[in-house]
Amino acid sequence: MKLKGVILYNKTNAIPSLKFVSYLIIRFFIFIFGLLPFRAIYLLSDAIRFMLHRVLAYRKDVMVANLKASFPEKSESHYNHIIKCAYQNLADIMVEGIKGGSMTKKQIVRRYKFINPEILDQAYEEGKSVILVAGHYNNWEWAALSPPYFFNHQLVALYKRLHNPYLNRYMKNSRSHTGVKMYEIQKTARAFQIHEDKEQPSIYLMAADQSPSNTDKAVWLQFLNQDTACLHGPEKYARKYNLPVVFAYPQRVQRGFYEVRLEWLVRDVGQCDDGKITTLFMKRLEELIIEQPENWLWTHKRWKHRREEV
């Protein structure tokens, strides 16, 4: 809007400009991260952990509530130990996620290694796509970088769109620079349709341990001592396209180094009743969390939904 040659403030026009400025600032810090050695980013991670835990108490109330409901038998000292380690895990994942955009192939393969990728060789030779399902356990950020170096399949990953369009485009490009095809979660059906029409079989990477936005189609299970609404997406598409399902989980060998193991959940989807695939996935994830609870994302409001009484 103009008045006598003067441009007046217009909130609508100001928004893209502010988003671009914030994008430039973030890109500057990402560039700096790319120059830093791993030893330096983990010193920064220690500082972030301290800020999240001791200064900001970031979602600490959520963590405490989740832990007490999941492990009612544990002591206060045990809760506090898990919380401290969970903040460190979160801080490490944050800095590793930023660092991932500048990592070389050598660094990616060395630091995020799939130790038994050969279990999918037969599926590839048969021209069969696979759904690879995982949780937010240990580092999930590098899961979109490493697979193309270990598998023959085309890798397809789903992501949640960022509100800042500049950052969203950068994030998509940085995560797909190794060859992964990225699709917004809202376009999941389209992603399957596109790639199942192609000759090269695909691996669909799907994280499925978050709270569903809509519980109408959720699968309800007992998970970590609580009635839990579970995402139905992996099971839905496995059944629709008759795709086998593999469970993947990364173990932190040492700080900044992970080994990812694959396990077959379902080979013959046609033999599974409704809800079976989701049940198998959530049960296996639960076993990992019980074994090492500090490696899961406890800051997420996983149990915000309640099942309606029938």
Summarize the structure.
This protein is an alpha/beta fold and 310 residues long. The chain is built from 10 helices and 11 strands. The chain is globular and about 50 Å long.
Looking across the biggest beta sheet, what order are the strands in? Answer: 3-11-10-4-7-5-6
SS strand fraction: 15-25%
Give the radius of gyration.
21 Å
Q: What's the average pLDDT?
A: 92
**Helix residue percentage:** 40-55%
Order of helices and strands: EEHHHHHEHEEHEHEEEHEEH
The gross shape turns out to be globular
End-to-end Cα distance, whole Å, is: 56 Å
Described by strand count, sense and barrel closure, the largest sheet is: 7 strands, mixed
Low-confidence stretches: 1-12
Number of strands: 11
Structural class: alpha/beta
Number of helices: 10
Taken together, the total number of domains comes to 2
